[in-house]
Predict the 3D structure of the following.
Amino acid sequence: MSARIDDIAGEVLVRAGDAKRFLIAVAGPPGAGKSTMADNLAIALKARDESAEVLPMDGFHMDNAILIERGLLARKGIPETFDVRGFLDIIRAVRRADQEVLVPVFDRSRELAIASARAISPDHRFIIVEGNYLLFSLGKWAELEGVFDFSVMLAPPIEVLEERLWDRWRGYKLTEEEASAKVYGNDLPNGRLILENRRPADITLELALA
């Protein structure tokens, strides 16, 4: 584990003080490395005898049937294709830390969200929320402003995102044509939208830390 992840964990602990619940946002465009960083930060906090859990925003993808009905399946992942209200409700419930909260988790291999797939306990002191729109300044996502106690923005150069997104979709055995449609027709335009409309973060990094 890199020293930088340990540095961020140390900063988080200083900021948290004696707080019972501390919410950390790990935001960034598709392919930025958010889930890897969130998982590694949770490991670093647990190594310091803290309790931590990761809450992925991807669990709030709208189902494909709704996206087909709305003509949005090809643009899955843009701001309008998430259950924003449901996500805000869950984040507010998690913020209170007064009861267990069950959250959905997205299964990318099946392209669907699994309901109640992860439990956030009142005893989890640190909740690391990771997702594209946690610092997004437009639409209903702007209601997240002020919710997080600490934030990290991953903002890789577009060429790095492009390479990672190609690797992602090829890994799912898509044809070159299908992968190209995902990368250039959806993910990269969406990445630019996120990078151009973000609130300031406590820490901004070009590359996720392993």
About this structure: The radius of gyration is 17 Å. Residues 159 and 188 are 10 Å apart (CA to CA).
